[in-house]
Specification:
The chain has six helices and twelve strands. The protein is of the alpha/beta class. The relative contact order is 0.14. Bound molecules: glycinamide ribonucleotide.
Amino acid sequence: MERAARPLRVAVLASGRGSNLQAVLGAISAGRLGATVVGVFSDKARAPVLERARAAGITTRALPPTGFAHRLAFDAAMFDAVEEAAPDLVVCAGYMRLISEPQVTRMAGRLVNIHPSLLPAFKGLHTHRQALDAGVTRHGASVHYVTPELDGGPVIAQARVPVLAGDDPQTLSDRVLAREHPLLVETLRLFAAGRVALADDHVVVDGSPIHVPLQLDPDNALTPASLSDI
Ligand code: GAR
């Protein structure tokens, strides 16, 4: 199940700032991630993520949804463009659109998303506000396979952070984002090593299905969750 030595070809879909892309690029250039970003794709022509990608010499494609008759047509065009880059894996890193079922099916097992909550808690938008309103003491981020259900696909790995007294959505978001970056990089390292796959809607790591997501530990290693984490 180990991959060959060739770098993992990663396409990134993003709508905004691009700090997760930057973390991936940083890990690649530091020699910590055996991957190459083969294209950055956005639904927003002015997204800062595109500038970051261009600065790193990466091919970019902005495809705004205006002009498409419907979401299915837009998504088909977007994923046609993505497929031209021949990625092994497509990473949604702050891509703020629902992807329609035909494209999710087309990309099955090759499409992942990073989401700022401990899924299945707090799907959708404003996750930090949702967490504060719910009064939870732990929050975090998840990397999961994309399925047609919004933020509902099998979770590969998570990073937890405490919710502290006095937090507001911004302080909580900052704390989560700082852990998103190593979470995404470490999850991509698993993919680059050929250690993770999707089989029958289950995440398989090193050949065995996992029943709870891997956890990012304080040393930025992904480890199996202990029973106390469940
Ligand atoms: C990240 O916090 C990511 O988890 C979130 O958008 C932010 C993008 O930041 N994604 C979602 O909310 C998807 N539902 P970035 O552009 O700096 O990487």
